Amino acid sequence: MNRDNRIVVHKFGGSSVATAERMRTAAGLVEADPRALKMVVVSALKGVTDALYALVHQAATTDQPWEPQWLAVKERHRTLIHELRLSESRVQPLLHRIEDDGAAVERLLQTIRLVKTASESIQDRVVGYGELWSSAIFNALLAQRATGSDRVHWLDARPCVIVHWHSLGPVVDWPMSTAAFERHAAEWVRANAGAVNSEAHTTTVVMPGFVATTPEGVQTTLGRNGSDYSASIIAALSKAQEIVIWTDVDGVLSADPRRVANARVIERLSYHEAVELAYFGAKVIHPKTMTPAIERAIPIRIKNTFNPDALGSVISNQSDDSLPVKGITTVEPVVLFNLEGTGNSGAPATAERLFGALREAKVSVLLISQGSSEHSICIAVHARERAATTAALEQAFRAERAAGLIATTAIIDHCAILAVVGDGMAGQSGVAARAFKTLADAAINIRAIAQGSSERNISVVVDEHNATRALNVVHSAFYLSDHTVSIGLIGPGLVGQALLEQIASQRERLLTRYGIDLRVRAIASSQAMHLTETPLSDDWSQTPRQRLCEQGTAIDLHRFTEHVMAEHLPHALIIDCSASADVAQHYERWLAAGIHVITPNKKANSGPMANYERLKPARRKGGSQYYYEATVGAGLPIIQTLYDLRICSMSTTVVCRFRRSFATPKRRASPSRIRATISPAPTWRANSPSWRARLGCRLNWSRLPWRAWFRSRWWRSVWMPF
Ligand code: ADP
Ligand code: ASP
Ligand code: MG
Hints:
Layout: E1 4-12, H1 20-32, E2 35-42, H2 48-61, H3 67-83, H4 88-115, H5 120-127, H6 129-145, E3 151-154, E4 163-166, E5 169-172, H7 174-193, E6 203-208, E7 211-213, E8 219-221, H8 227-238, E9 242-247, E10 268-270, H9 271-279, H10 290-296, E11 300-304, E12 313-316, E13 327-340, H11 348-360, E14 365-370, E15 376-382, H12 386-396, H13 398-402, E16 408-421, H14 431-441, E17 446-451, E18 457-463, H15 467-479, E19 483-490, H16 494-514, E20 516-524, E21 528-531, H17 544-551, E22 553-554, H18 557-564, E23 571-576, H19 581-584, H20 587-592, E24 596-598, H21 603-606, H22 609-622, E25 626-627, H23 638-647, E26 652-657, E27 673-678, H24 689-695, H25 706-711, H26 713-719
Parallel strand pairs: 1-2, 1-9, 2-6, 3-6, 9-11, 10-12, 19-20, 19-23, 23-24, 24-25
Antiparallel strand pairs: 4-5, 7-8, 11-12, 13-15, 13-16, 14-15, 16-18, 17-18, 20-21, 21-22, 26-27
Helix pairs in contact: 1-6, 2-4, 3-4, 4-6, 8-10, 9-10, 11-12, 14-15
The structure holds adenosine-5'-diphosphate, aspartic acid (ASP) and magnesium ion (MG).
């Protein structure tokens, strides 16, 4: 392998090192990187930090024994060590380390239990062991796999990452950290910096993320999700050229993929966009990660350990201008405080006092909104800071309240902030309008609005129970084609299967050429159904019936309908390829609810006239379309032709001949020839009472022998004039 002289930082999140198999994959990714010096920052195994926090909490607040959970954490690490099949000389030191550290943790937990409280420093010591152990194990694995003269070292990151804790989180002490890094790690950096290109050895330095030290020498952490921040601090200290964050998704997505199924990868983001997204809830990266990288212009690449070939996202100075909105995120639960009253008007000091009081109380304000009259100020804070905020406001405005100058301090619980983020929104009109209109269309009430002057972020406050819906509808408004159709297909028989095949073969073309996005999201037979958030994969079109048997759940047309009518997708369509009269009974409800219906099923149009006639007002009510061309003349465009004739204002007499048996209901007294006048009149009256009187029966268009009729001279007599 030709060595590349640069320095890189790789950071592996908890899911990337959760099991022996994943650790091996991660090791392979490090080894495949040809750069000279690879600094590898490792998170705790997935779930371990949560378990350690829970242990501390349990020991401090309950009398329940914490030992079983603690033993489980230790056992998980021991099992991992065995599963990695390391050599005995590497296994023993690791097991001893777990025993020794474990004894220290046990003493800490016993102390917490005794004093019934856990100071932050004790808690930080306990939770930091997750990273200390995972990095030691990963180091042993890499060392065992190292070939030739490649070197692997473990570095204790604690003395190198020195941070002060402020109300806004940890802040790096750069002079102290640089000096400490120089003492502990500079030899590797120096050794590699001047090395010759052809020299085929690399140095890998493995270290724990998350853990750090205060300037006083007390162990601390960088806060939840802080290993990302560790990686960018180490990148700054080692003067790395790139940071690669390995996680379990393909990059930074346009929304949280756990809540928005259609979220898509953003290939390029600016540092500022990434900060805004992370600050407003995009868990994929810690918001502080960008700070050291911005100053030194180090690009951050987000990659998927489980799909390393995917390009991932790059966070750097360059953004992708083609997308004005890069992502939509939410923060919840939040509480809104609304300070209202005569005293606010024209009193700028009020805002100063308000924010002064909140700073004193160490409350961080997520969103501020104030009208120009200054009559009211609205702030949003994390729900966990509700009590502190209430007390701070009480205290700060006691005098005004007593004098009646502050009328109310309304508190609205259970809210969520929805943030729309993107550099391209600056100076572009219509972005906010689009978001607001979409929320209004989905009947989601907006409680407060804020837009920073950078115009990089528009935030609205909505009720918490609406948060996921709001996220989805706004996401769709910016990311989906206006012609995205949520399709439910009923009846996976011959016609249904042929249709699925056609959709599968044309989907891509329709999307790229015409922006028509057909998503078959539900499929049902008379017994089973299958609902899916992402469109049905194309292989369903081969054997839909069989797959429904294997994967389907019991049919429930109500749930089926709800699913097809996904609020975040602009159009809903049900295609009824069954021959069922029961299914046809639902058309009225579907059309009235705004679901378009396409059907080759003849039942709705050939049953009782009253049923058919109810469909028209339903369609008008829902603003939906009802297409039933295939119910007449086996797919010939008869209905459409008749409509077109009418629309062309042609007054034409259609003469058709048919057998008696095609008249309904009793197949009696019908003439063998019928004349129907197609005229530009608003309604076509072939089935009107007067016509029925003339025919002596109701004309059932769907049962007419259209094929024969088309071949006949009667048809030609109609068609020829055109
Ligand atoms: P790691 O353990 O690798 O640090 P995290 O769990 O901290 O991973 O972050 C990755 C997770 O963040 C993803 O699995 C995804 O569910 C979630 N996430 C939330 N918002 C976003 C987003 N906008 N883009 C990508 N992932 C997101
Ligand atoms: N293990 C820590 C956490 O779960 C830090 C990290 O994974 O980034 O918060
Ligand atoms: Mg993370």
